[in-house]
Design brief:
single chain; 417 residues; alpha+beta; Rossmann fold; five-stranded mixed beta sheet; 16 strands; 37% helix; elongated; binds histidyl-adenosine monophosphate
Protein backbone atom coordinates (compact mmCIF):
# COMPACT_ATOMS: atom_id res chain seq x y z
CA UNK A 1 0.00 0.00 0.00
CA UNK A 2 1.59 3.32 -0.99
CA UNK A 3 2.09 5.89 1.77
CA UNK A 4 -0.22 8.45 0.16
CA UNK A 5 -3.64 7.84 -1.31
CA UNK A 6 -6.62 10.05 -2.11
CA UNK A 7 -8.62 11.12 0.97
CA UNK A 8 -11.96 9.39 1.63
CA UNK A 9 -14.66 10.55 -0.79
CA UNK A 10 -12.08 12.00 -3.21
CA UNK A 11 -11.04 10.37 -6.47
CA UNK A 12 -8.49 10.64 -9.25
CA UNK A 13 -10.29 10.74 -12.58
CA UNK A 14 -7.97 8.98 -15.00
CA UNK A 15 -8.11 8.47 -18.77
CA UNK A 16 -10.28 7.37 -20.50
CA UNK A 17 -12.83 8.37 -17.80
CA UNK A 18 -11.48 11.93 -17.79
CA UNK A 19 -12.25 12.15 -21.52
CA UNK A 20 -15.84 11.29 -20.76
CA UNK A 21 -15.96 14.14 -18.21
CA UNK A 22 -14.69 16.59 -20.84
CA UNK A 23 -17.31 15.40 -23.34
CA UNK A 24 -20.02 15.69 -20.66
CA UNK A 25 -19.12 19.32 -19.96
CA UNK A 26 -18.67 19.98 -23.71
CA UNK A 27 -22.16 18.74 -24.60
CA UNK A 28 -23.62 20.71 -21.70
CA UNK A 29 -21.81 23.94 -22.54
CA UNK A 30 -22.78 23.70 -26.23
CA UNK A 31 -26.43 23.24 -25.30
CA UNK A 32 -26.66 26.09 -22.80
CA UNK A 33 -24.48 28.48 -24.81
CA UNK A 34 -26.91 27.96 -27.70
CA UNK A 35 -29.69 29.04 -25.31
CA UNK A 36 -28.04 32.35 -24.42
CA UNK A 37 -26.14 31.42 -21.24
CA UNK A 38 -22.61 32.74 -20.61
CA UNK A 39 -20.08 30.93 -18.46
CA UNK A 40 -19.24 32.06 -14.93
CA UNK A 41 -16.15 30.67 -13.22
CA UNK A 42 -16.51 31.53 -9.53
CA UNK A 43 -13.68 30.81 -7.08
CA UNK A 44 -13.62 27.55 -5.14
CA UNK A 45 -13.40 29.48 -1.86
CA UNK A 46 -15.83 32.06 -0.52
CA UNK A 47 -16.42 33.84 2.76
CA UNK A 48 -18.25 31.29 4.88
CA UNK A 49 -21.11 33.77 5.28
CA UNK A 50 -22.03 33.36 1.60
CA UNK A 51 -22.94 29.75 2.27
CA UNK A 52 -24.63 30.43 5.58
CA UNK A 53 -27.22 32.34 3.54
CA UNK A 54 -28.03 29.03 1.79
CA UNK A 55 -29.77 28.06 5.00
CA UNK A 56 -28.69 27.63 8.58
CA UNK A 57 -30.92 24.57 8.93
CA UNK A 58 -29.37 22.41 6.23
CA UNK A 59 -26.80 19.67 6.74
CA UNK A 60 -24.86 21.05 3.79
CA UNK A 61 -24.11 24.18 5.83
CA UNK A 62 -24.12 22.99 9.43
CA UNK A 63 -22.39 19.62 9.17
CA UNK A 64 -20.74 19.18 5.81
CA UNK A 65 -18.85 22.36 5.07
CA UNK A 66 -15.08 22.37 4.58
CA UNK A 67 -14.46 25.68 6.35
CA UNK A 68 -11.34 27.07 7.96
CA UNK A 69 -9.59 30.28 8.97
CA UNK A 70 -6.95 31.32 6.43
CA UNK A 71 -3.58 33.00 7.05
CA UNK A 72 -5.27 36.41 6.85
CA UNK A 73 -7.72 35.45 9.61
CA UNK A 74 -10.65 35.17 7.19
CA UNK A 75 -13.22 32.46 7.85
CA UNK A 76 -13.67 30.85 4.45
CA UNK A 77 -15.12 27.67 3.00
CA UNK A 78 -14.71 25.43 -0.01
CA UNK A 79 -17.97 25.84 -1.91
CA UNK A 80 -20.55 23.09 -1.24
CA UNK A 81 -22.51 24.28 -4.32
CA UNK A 82 -22.41 27.20 -6.75
CA UNK A 83 -25.81 28.90 -6.62
CA UNK A 84 -24.78 31.01 -3.61
CA UNK A 85 -21.53 31.99 -5.36
CA UNK A 86 -23.46 33.03 -8.49
CA UNK A 87 -25.76 35.21 -6.37
CA UNK A 88 -22.78 36.72 -4.51
CA UNK A 89 -21.22 37.51 -7.92
CA UNK A 90 -24.49 39.08 -9.07
CA UNK A 91 -24.53 41.40 -6.04
CA UNK A 92 -20.83 42.22 -6.49
CA UNK A 93 -20.93 43.03 -10.25
CA UNK A 94 -24.55 44.20 -10.79
CA UNK A 95 -24.87 42.80 -14.33
CA UNK A 96 -27.88 43.64 -16.52
CA UNK A 97 -30.82 41.26 -16.14
CA UNK A 98 -31.86 38.72 -17.16
CA UNK A 99 -28.46 37.36 -16.18
CA UNK A 100 -28.19 33.86 -17.66
CA UNK A 101 -25.05 31.97 -16.64
CA UNK A 102 -23.75 28.40 -16.63
CA UNK A 103 -20.97 26.77 -14.64
CA UNK A 104 -19.05 23.54 -14.28
CA UNK A 105 -16.67 22.42 -11.59
CA UNK A 106 -16.02 20.75 -8.27
CA UNK A 107 -17.87 21.21 -4.97
CA UNK A 108 -17.06 19.89 -1.52
CA UNK A 109 -19.31 18.38 1.13
CA UNK A 110 -18.10 16.36 4.11
CA UNK A 111 -20.59 13.53 3.63
CA UNK A 112 -20.34 9.79 4.33
CA UNK A 113 -18.82 8.45 1.10
CA UNK A 114 -20.73 5.75 -0.77
CA UNK A 115 -21.70 4.94 -4.35
CA UNK A 116 -22.82 8.23 -5.90
CA UNK A 117 -21.90 10.27 -2.84
CA UNK A 118 -18.45 11.80 -2.67
CA UNK A 119 -16.75 14.57 -0.70
CA UNK A 120 -15.51 16.20 -3.88
CA UNK A 121 -18.01 16.01 -6.72
CA UNK A 122 -18.57 17.94 -9.92
CA UNK A 123 -21.66 19.75 -11.10
CA UNK A 124 -22.77 21.47 -14.26
CA UNK A 125 -25.56 23.99 -13.84
CA UNK A 126 -27.30 27.16 -14.92
CA UNK A 127 -28.84 30.11 -13.08
CA UNK A 128 -31.13 32.85 -14.35
CA UNK A 129 -31.32 35.99 -12.22
CA UNK A 130 -33.79 38.82 -12.50
CA UNK A 131 -36.84 37.11 -14.06
CA UNK A 132 -40.00 36.00 -12.26
CA UNK A 133 -41.62 34.68 -15.44
CA UNK A 134 -42.67 31.01 -15.07
CA UNK A 135 -41.51 30.49 -18.67
CA UNK A 136 -37.96 30.69 -17.33
CA UNK A 137 -38.71 27.80 -14.96
CA UNK A 138 -39.84 25.81 -18.00
CA UNK A 139 -36.77 26.79 -20.05
CA UNK A 140 -34.44 25.76 -17.23
CA UNK A 141 -36.15 22.40 -16.69
CA UNK A 142 -36.28 21.73 -20.45
CA UNK A 143 -32.54 22.40 -20.84
CA UNK A 144 -31.72 19.89 -18.10
CA UNK A 145 -34.16 17.35 -19.48
CA UNK A 146 -32.83 17.62 -23.05
CA UNK A 147 -29.25 17.38 -21.80
CA UNK A 148 -29.92 14.14 -19.90
CA UNK A 149 -31.67 12.79 -23.00
CA UNK A 150 -28.64 13.72 -25.15
CA UNK A 151 -26.48 11.50 -22.95
CA UNK A 152 -28.80 8.67 -23.92
CA UNK A 153 -30.36 8.20 -20.46
CA UNK A 154 -33.86 6.75 -20.60
CA UNK A 155 -34.65 5.81 -17.01
CA UNK A 156 -35.08 9.33 -15.68
CA UNK A 157 -38.16 10.76 -14.06
CA UNK A 158 -38.77 14.40 -13.36
CA UNK A 159 -40.23 15.14 -9.93
CA UNK A 160 -41.90 18.51 -9.65
CA UNK A 161 -43.26 20.54 -6.75
CA UNK A 162 -43.95 24.11 -5.74
CA UNK A 163 -43.19 25.47 -2.30
CA UNK A 164 -45.42 28.49 -2.98
CA UNK A 165 -44.76 32.09 -2.02
CA UNK A 166 -42.61 32.71 1.08
CA UNK A 167 -45.77 33.42 3.11
CA UNK A 168 -47.40 30.18 1.85
CA UNK A 169 -44.27 28.33 2.86
CA UNK A 170 -44.33 29.94 6.30
CA UNK A 171 -47.95 28.96 6.90
CA UNK A 172 -47.22 25.46 5.64
CA UNK A 173 -44.17 25.17 7.92
CA UNK A 174 -46.34 26.14 10.90
CA UNK A 175 -49.00 23.60 9.95
CA UNK A 176 -46.34 20.90 9.60
CA UNK A 177 -44.82 21.85 12.92
CA UNK A 178 -48.20 21.58 14.64
CA UNK A 179 -48.98 18.28 12.92
CA UNK A 180 -45.62 16.61 13.66
CA UNK A 181 -45.56 17.98 17.23
CA UNK A 182 -48.95 16.37 17.85
CA UNK A 183 -47.57 13.06 16.55
CA UNK A 184 -44.14 13.30 18.09
CA UNK A 185 -44.17 9.85 19.68
CA UNK A 186 -44.61 8.23 16.24
CA UNK A 187 -41.58 9.96 14.73
CA UNK A 188 -38.04 8.55 14.75
CA UNK A 189 -35.51 10.21 17.10
CA UNK A 190 -33.71 11.67 14.09
CA UNK A 191 -36.88 13.22 12.70
CA UNK A 192 -37.78 14.63 16.11
CA UNK A 193 -34.42 16.42 16.08
CA UNK A 194 -35.00 17.62 12.50
CA UNK A 195 -38.41 18.98 13.49
CA UNK A 196 -36.88 21.46 15.92
CA UNK A 197 -34.69 22.88 13.12
CA UNK A 198 -36.89 22.70 10.03
CA UNK A 199 -40.22 20.84 9.85
CA UNK A 200 -40.01 20.72 6.02
CA UNK A 201 -36.93 18.51 6.25
CA UNK A 202 -38.93 15.85 8.10
CA UNK A 203 -40.68 15.16 4.78
CA UNK A 204 -37.25 14.14 3.42
CA UNK A 205 -36.92 11.27 5.93
CA UNK A 206 -36.48 7.89 4.28
CA UNK A 207 -36.86 6.01 7.60
CA UNK A 208 -39.66 3.41 7.38
CA UNK A 209 -41.00 4.27 10.87
CA UNK A 210 -41.68 7.88 9.75
CA UNK A 211 -43.54 7.08 6.56
CA UNK A 212 -47.06 6.65 7.93
CA UNK A 213 -46.97 10.00 9.75
CA UNK A 214 -45.43 11.72 6.72
CA UNK A 215 -48.12 10.30 4.45
CA UNK A 216 -50.81 11.86 6.66
CA UNK A 217 -49.09 15.28 6.87
CA UNK A 218 -50.69 18.46 5.48
CA UNK A 219 -49.83 19.09 1.84
CA UNK A 220 -48.20 22.22 0.51
CA UNK A 221 -50.81 22.51 -2.27
CA UNK A 222 -53.43 23.30 0.40
CA UNK A 223 -51.51 26.51 1.19
CA UNK A 224 -50.86 28.03 -2.26
CA UNK A 225 -51.83 31.67 -2.77
CA UNK A 226 -53.58 32.48 -6.07
CA UNK A 227 -50.26 33.79 -7.49
CA UNK A 228 -48.34 30.68 -6.48
CA UNK A 229 -50.99 28.43 -7.98
CA UNK A 230 -51.06 30.41 -11.25
CA UNK A 231 -47.26 30.26 -11.49
CA UNK A 232 -47.18 26.51 -10.89
CA UNK A 233 -50.07 25.88 -13.31
CA UNK A 234 -48.23 27.73 -16.10
CA UNK A 235 -45.11 25.63 -15.47
CA UNK A 236 -47.07 22.39 -15.66
CA UNK A 237 -48.98 23.37 -18.81
CA UNK A 238 -45.73 24.45 -20.50
CA UNK A 239 -43.92 21.23 -19.64
CA UNK A 240 -46.83 19.21 -21.04
CA UNK A 241 -46.76 21.29 -24.23
CA UNK A 242 -43.04 20.51 -24.63
CA UNK A 243 -43.72 16.81 -24.10
CA UNK A 244 -41.74 16.66 -20.85
CA UNK A 245 -43.28 14.06 -18.56
CA UNK A 246 -43.26 14.78 -14.82
CA UNK A 247 -44.74 13.55 -11.58
CA UNK A 248 -45.92 15.92 -8.87
CA UNK A 249 -44.10 15.06 -5.68
CA UNK A 250 -45.36 17.19 -2.80
CA UNK A 251 -42.65 15.79 -0.53
CA UNK A 252 -39.93 17.28 -2.71
CA UNK A 253 -38.53 20.00 -0.45
CA UNK A 254 -34.87 19.72 -1.59
CA UNK A 255 -31.79 19.74 0.61
CA UNK A 256 -31.16 23.49 0.64
CA UNK A 257 -33.32 26.13 2.33
CA UNK A 258 -33.46 28.85 -0.29
CA UNK A 259 -36.25 27.48 -2.49
CA UNK A 260 -39.57 29.18 -3.30
CA UNK A 261 -42.19 28.27 -5.90
CA UNK A 262 -40.99 25.63 -8.38
CA UNK A 263 -38.65 22.86 -7.22
CA UNK A 264 -37.65 19.82 -9.24
CA UNK A 265 -35.37 16.80 -9.28
CA UNK A 266 -34.27 14.36 -11.95
CA UNK A 267 -34.41 10.91 -10.44
CA UNK A 268 -32.35 8.07 -11.91
CA UNK A 269 -34.21 4.77 -12.09
CA UNK A 270 -31.13 2.60 -11.63
CA UNK A 271 -29.77 4.26 -8.49
CA UNK A 272 -30.22 3.55 -4.76
CA UNK A 273 -32.94 5.77 -3.32
CA UNK A 274 -30.56 7.74 -1.07
CA UNK A 275 -28.46 8.80 -4.08
CA UNK A 276 -30.91 8.73 -6.96
CA UNK A 277 -31.19 12.48 -7.59
CA UNK A 278 -28.98 13.10 -10.62
CA UNK A 279 -29.76 16.79 -10.53
CA UNK A 280 -32.17 19.28 -9.11
CA UNK A 281 -33.04 22.90 -8.73
CA UNK A 282 -35.77 25.44 -8.50
CA UNK A 283 -36.57 29.05 -7.68
CA UNK A 284 -34.74 30.91 -4.94
CA UNK A 285 -36.25 34.39 -5.17
CA UNK A 286 -34.94 35.58 -1.77
CA UNK A 287 -31.29 34.54 -2.02
CA UNK A 288 -29.82 37.63 -3.73
CA UNK A 289 -31.51 39.81 -1.11
CA UNK A 290 -30.16 37.61 1.69
CA UNK A 291 -26.68 38.27 0.26
CA UNK A 292 -27.18 42.02 0.44
CA UNK A 293 -28.48 42.70 -3.08
CA UNK A 294 -31.78 44.07 -4.39
CA UNK A 295 -34.88 41.86 -4.40
CA UNK A 296 -34.14 39.62 -7.40
CA UNK A 297 -35.82 36.51 -8.74
CA UNK A 298 -33.63 33.48 -9.41
CA UNK A 299 -34.04 30.00 -10.83
CA UNK A 300 -31.61 27.29 -11.87
CA UNK A 301 -30.41 23.74 -11.46
CA UNK A 302 -27.27 21.70 -10.99
CA UNK A 303 -26.66 18.22 -12.35
CA UNK A 304 -24.15 16.03 -10.54
CA UNK A 305 -21.57 14.76 -12.98
CA UNK A 306 -20.24 11.85 -10.90
CA UNK A 307 -23.68 10.50 -10.16
CA UNK A 308 -25.04 11.00 -13.66
CA UNK A 309 -22.10 9.09 -15.12
CA UNK A 310 -22.85 6.20 -12.74
CA UNK A 311 -26.40 6.20 -14.12
CA UNK A 312 -24.91 6.16 -17.64
CA UNK A 313 -22.81 3.11 -16.67
CA UNK A 314 -25.93 1.39 -15.33
CA UNK A 315 -27.86 2.08 -18.54
CA UNK A 316 -24.87 1.28 -20.79
CA UNK A 317 -24.96 4.70 -22.48
CA UNK A 318 -22.41 7.50 -22.91
CA UNK A 319 -19.56 5.14 -22.04
CA UNK A 320 -15.89 6.18 -21.89
CA UNK A 321 -13.97 6.05 -25.16
CA UNK A 322 -10.17 6.14 -25.27
CA UNK A 323 -8.53 9.41 -26.35
CA UNK A 324 -7.04 7.89 -29.54
CA UNK A 325 -4.58 9.63 -31.82
CA UNK A 326 -4.89 9.43 -35.63
CA UNK A 327 -1.28 8.70 -36.51
CA UNK A 328 1.60 6.88 -34.80
CA UNK A 329 5.14 7.49 -36.00
CA UNK A 330 7.45 4.45 -35.85
CA UNK A 331 11.05 5.61 -36.17
CA UNK A 332 13.71 2.90 -36.19
CA UNK A 333 16.57 5.30 -36.80
CA UNK A 334 16.85 6.64 -33.26
CA UNK A 335 13.98 9.09 -32.81
CA UNK A 336 14.94 12.31 -34.60
CA UNK A 337 12.65 11.55 -37.56
CA UNK A 338 9.75 10.90 -35.20
CA UNK A 339 10.47 14.28 -33.55
CA UNK A 340 10.30 16.07 -36.92
CA UNK A 341 7.25 14.24 -38.26
CA UNK A 342 5.11 14.38 -35.09
CA UNK A 343 5.88 18.10 -34.86
CA UNK A 344 4.87 18.63 -38.49
CA UNK A 345 1.64 16.64 -38.08
CA UNK A 346 0.66 18.25 -34.78
CA UNK A 347 1.30 21.74 -36.22
CA UNK A 348 -1.10 20.85 -39.02
CA UNK A 349 -3.74 19.84 -36.47
CA UNK A 350 -3.35 16.07 -36.89
CA UNK A 351 -3.15 14.13 -33.63
CA UNK A 352 0.02 12.07 -33.54
CA UNK A 353 2.07 10.09 -31.06
CA UNK A 354 5.35 8.20 -31.08
CA UNK A 355 7.53 5.85 -29.05
CA UNK A 356 10.70 6.84 -27.19
CA UNK A 357 14.10 5.42 -26.26
CA UNK A 358 14.89 3.68 -29.58
CA UNK A 359 12.65 0.64 -29.10
CA UNK A 360 12.52 -2.24 -31.58
CA UNK A 361 10.13 -2.02 -34.52
CA UNK A 362 8.03 -4.80 -32.97
CA UNK A 363 7.59 -2.94 -29.71
CA UNK A 364 6.87 0.33 -31.55
CA UNK A 365 4.23 -1.35 -33.73
CA UNK A 366 2.59 -2.68 -30.56
CA UNK A 367 2.45 0.84 -29.16
CA UNK A 368 1.03 2.05 -32.49
CA UNK A 369 -1.74 -0.50 -32.20
CA UNK A 370 -2.49 0.42 -28.59
CA UNK A 371 -2.63 4.13 -29.44
CA UNK A 372 -5.75 3.54 -31.52
CA UNK A 373 -4.08 5.24 -34.52
CA UNK A 374 -5.54 4.64 -37.96
CA UNK A 375 -2.21 5.03 -39.71
CA UNK A 376 1.40 4.26 -38.82
CA UNK A 377 4.24 6.15 -40.49
CA UNK A 378 7.35 3.95 -40.56
CA UNK A 379 10.82 5.41 -41.04
CA UNK A 380 13.93 3.21 -41.37
CA UNK A 381 17.37 4.08 -42.70
CA UNK A 382 16.29 3.31 -46.33
CA UNK A 383 13.48 5.87 -46.00
CA UNK A 384 15.88 8.46 -44.58
CA UNK A 385 18.34 7.87 -47.44
CA UNK A 386 15.66 8.12 -50.14
CA UNK A 387 13.66 10.92 -48.43
CA UNK A 388 10.55 8.76 -48.28
CA UNK A 389 8.18 7.38 -45.64
CA UNK A 390 6.08 4.23 -45.39
CA UNK A 391 2.40 4.62 -44.54
CA UNK A 392 0.79 1.54 -43.04
CA UNK A 393 -3.00 1.48 -42.53
CA UNK A 394 -3.62 -0.16 -39.15
CA UNK A 395 -7.38 -0.64 -39.21
CA UNK A 396 -7.96 -2.02 -42.71
CA UNK A 397 -6.57 -4.69 -45.01
CA UNK A 398 -5.04 -2.09 -47.29
CA UNK A 399 -1.32 -2.71 -48.08
CA UNK A 400 1.32 -0.29 -46.86
CA UNK A 401 2.72 2.17 -49.40
CA UNK A 402 5.66 4.52 -49.78
CA UNK A 403 5.44 8.27 -50.38
CA UNK A 404 8.07 10.90 -50.82
CA UNK A 405 8.84 12.82 -47.64
CA UNK A 406 7.57 16.10 -49.06
CA UNK A 407 4.21 14.49 -49.96
CA UNK A 408 3.82 12.93 -46.50
CA UNK A 409 1.63 15.62 -44.91
CA UNK A 410 -0.81 16.04 -47.85
CA UNK A 411 -1.07 12.24 -48.24
CA UNK A 412 -1.81 11.73 -44.53
CA UNK A 413 -4.32 14.60 -44.53
CA UNK A 414 -6.12 13.04 -47.50
CA UNK A 415 -6.01 9.50 -46.07
CA UNK A 416 -7.59 10.69 -42.82
CA UNK A 417 -10.32 12.79 -44.41
P1 LIG B 1 -28.18 19.72 -4.85
O1 LIG B 1 -29.44 18.95 -4.97
O2 LIG B 1 -27.58 19.86 -3.50
O3 LIG B 1 -28.49 21.14 -5.47
O4 LIG B 1 -27.08 19.10 -5.80
C1 LIG B 1 -27.35 18.89 -7.16
C2 LIG B 1 -26.75 17.57 -7.60
O5 LIG B 1 -25.37 17.50 -7.25
C3 LIG B 1 -27.37 16.36 -6.94
O6 LIG B 1 -28.57 15.98 -7.57
C4 LIG B 1 -26.27 15.32 -7.13
O7 LIG B 1 -26.29 14.76 -8.43
C5 LIG B 1 -25.03 16.16 -7.00
N1 LIG B 1 -24.48 16.00 -5.66
C6 LIG B 1 -24.78 16.67 -4.53
N2 LIG B 1 -24.06 16.21 -3.48
C7 LIG B 1 -23.28 15.22 -3.97
C8 LIG B 1 -22.30 14.35 -3.40
N3 LIG B 1 -21.93 14.42 -2.12
N4 LIG B 1 -21.69 13.45 -4.22
C9 LIG B 1 -22.01 13.36 -5.52
N5 LIG B 1 -22.92 14.15 -6.11
C10 LIG B 1 -23.55 15.08 -5.35
C11 LIG B 1 -27.60 22.16 -5.55
O8 LIG B 1 -26.41 22.05 -5.38
C12 LIG B 1 -28.22 23.46 -6.00
N6 LIG B 1 -27.16 24.47 -6.04
C13 LIG B 1 -28.90 23.29 -7.33
C14 LIG B 1 -29.54 24.56 -7.82
C15 LIG B 1 -29.06 25.39 -8.76
N7 LIG B 1 -30.68 25.08 -7.38
C16 LIG B 1 -30.91 26.21 -8.02
N8 LIG B 1 -29.93 26.42 -8.85
Amino acid sequence: MPEFQTSPGMRDILPPESGRWRRFVGIFSDAVTAAGYGQIIPPLLEDVGVFHRVGEATDVVTKEMYDFVDKGDRHIALRPEQTASVCRAFVQHSPATPWKVWYAGPNFRYERPQRGRFRQFDQVGIEVLGVEDPYVDIEVIALAWDFLAKLGLLQISLHLNSLGEPSDRERYMQALKDYFSNNLEHLSQASQATLTKNPLRVLDSKRPEDQQIIDGAPRISQFYSAEAKAHFDTVQVGLRELGIAFVINEKLVRGLDYYRHTTFEFVGGTMDSAQNALGGGGRYDGLVEALGGPATAGVGFAIGLDRTLLACDDEGVFLPVPDDVSVFVVDITGGRQAMLITHELRSAGISADRAYQGRSIKSQMKSADRSGAVLAIIIGSDEVDSSTAIIRPLRSDQEQYTVSRKDLLPTITKALS
